[in-house]
Amino acid sequence: MKRIEVKTQHKSYDVLVGRNVLDKIGTDLTKYNSKALLICDRNVYRYHQSKINKIIHSNKKFYFYLFNPSEKNKNLKSVELIYKHLRQSNFSRKDIVVALGGGITGDVSGFAAATYMRGIPFYQIPTTLLSMVDSSVGGKTGVNFLGYKNLIGAFYQPQKVYADLNFLETLPLREIISGAGEIFKYTFLADEENYFMIRNKLSEIILQKKFDENLIIRCIQIKASVVEKDEFETSGIRKILNLGHTFAHAFESAFNFQIKHGEAVIAGIFASLVVSEKLGLITNSYLKKYFSDFEFLPFNKKILKADLKKIINFMKSDKKTSDNKIKLVLASKPGNIFIDVQVDEKIIEKSLKELFQFYKTV
Ligand SMILES: NC(=O)c1ccc[n+]([C@@H]2O[C@H](COP(=O)([O-])OP(=O)(O)OC[C@H]3O[C@@H](n4cnc5c(N)ncnc54)[C@H](O)[C@@H]3O)[C@@H](O)[C@H]2O)c1
Known about the structure:
Layout: E1 2-7, E2 12-18, H1 22-30, E3 36-41, H2 42-57, E4 62-67, H3 76-88, E5 96-101, H4 103-115, E6 122-126, H5 129-135, E7 140-145, E8 148-155, E9 160-164, H6 173-187, H7 192-208, H8 213-229, H9 245-254, H10 261-278, H11 284-293, H12 308-316, E10 327-333, E11 336-342, H13 345-361
This protein binds nicotinamide-adenine-dinucleotide (NAD).
The site of nicotinamide-adenine-dinucleotide has 31 residues, from helix 2, helix 4, helix 5, strand 8 and helix 6.
């Protein structure tokens, strides 16, 4: 088991990564003389019932709440139901919320914990690849609103994160691919050595369903180092984590969340690379090299049916947009990331057409 410390402005916390990390949480939580609400992803409970029951029975004060995770349920109504549960069980500020599940369960539970009584302690047990390498670390919590992704939210760091790789054994292939989308972005966020290490281990995940602890640790370390420098996305450094995401959120919204977040991120990063080439940030031969290095990543062909005008309109209403101008995070090479690049919508349209044409023919 490996411990990674995340040091933010207001708080430091540990992320534990490994196999059988789950055993630690029962021991940790029994130390507190407080109530805990375990908000548990319904599907994960189905697969891992005995392990989860062991946590619940480790403490007489454990309350249990089964949550149906979906982008449709990632809303204020779900948060309200959690508030009701906390209120009915007389939860106070010294009591705690534990989220066990993927990114949706974590984001919704985290927002409820951040806002109930102005904030009660919050623990994360991520169970998807995506939530282990990304969403459980860094303190972004929130819900969708009026069809817009994560429009309502709060920065709220967890007390501790327990990333137990044993959960990944039951993850469906489509969810593995979705997690791969967020791992894809990390290849560009550090240096060339990091690029090859992550690329190779990512291909093992997709081609052999082999989850390497060191890969997950590396991704969390990169995320932690970025979050430590810019916890609230004020200096801008944190924006590098949004590589491909302005496209991705537009794809998700345009398909009414029928495509997975990570699938959208895969397409979004490829689209951003094409834009980078159009702007002269990378040469055509490098663009081809990046496409070839990651050709093992499945591309959800549903995205090819997207209405380009609709995508561009969603991009214009992205949280990162101001004055109706689209701003993107772009990469020229591993470790060289540009934030807030204002891009003309004609270039966006041209890049999407080119990307879609490429995937129509492969
Ligand atoms: N807070 C952040 O910083 C951040 C970062 C990236 C993404 N996100 C958000 O995360 C969400 C996506 O998270 P996700 O991909 O984990 O989706 P998810 O929470 O919907 O989980 C995906 C599916 O896998 C199932 N599942 C979870 N763990 C499983 C397991 N071990 N075995 C079998 N099935 C399992 C779930 O029930 C669900 O059906 C999006 O809403 C996205 O916006 C947040």
